[in-house]
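Run log, item B.
One chain of 193 residues. Sequence copied directly from the ordering sheet:
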Amino acid sequence: MANKVYPDWVQKQKTRGTTVKKVGSNYYLYKHSSKRIPGKKNPVPSDTYIGRITPEGIITSSNKKVDANASDIIVREYGFSRAIQHLCPASWKEPLGDLWQEVLDFIIVRESPGSYIIDEREVPKELDPHIQLGAQKSALLRRMKQEYGRDLKDIRCLSSIYLVTIGKKHLISKISDEQKALIDDIGLVMEVH
């Protein structure tokens, strides 16, 4: 089989163990390998996509393939819940003592029923009868506004940021420029472990 002749800028990207494929006027780089299959006379070739070759270099694919069944994928609201957790003032937590986390989780899940918190901690179905939910929520919102200048209406746009769990891998959905500006403004770190 004769070697194909490619332009110099394409040939420069081709290294040992790779192959170039031309589709239309575009060139693509693949990792080339082969494996033996029982019952087959010759090895079966296998190519893995690396990226598109341009005169400036290789543009790699940012898309990742994940082996998962639909039942392995969980999508939960993340941005809004994280923002409330982040903006929760110590002055609101102190009067509640050890119950503050339970009350905060309860408020978050009431505001965002699809919150990722549901998968992290056990959220009570009801609060202690001595805790007045309406009063606690009002106090939380008032203190968030006083200390950070933000309330639920301001951070509601973060509700469309999702935590996507595929098996044991966690990903955060796309964040818009408007959401990014708000996240940076309130100093929120959007990371998952």
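Observations after the first pass:
- Residues 8-60 form one domain.
- Helices lie at 8-11, 79-87, 90-96, 100-111, 117-120, 133-148, 152-155, 177-186.
Flagged for discussion on Thursday.
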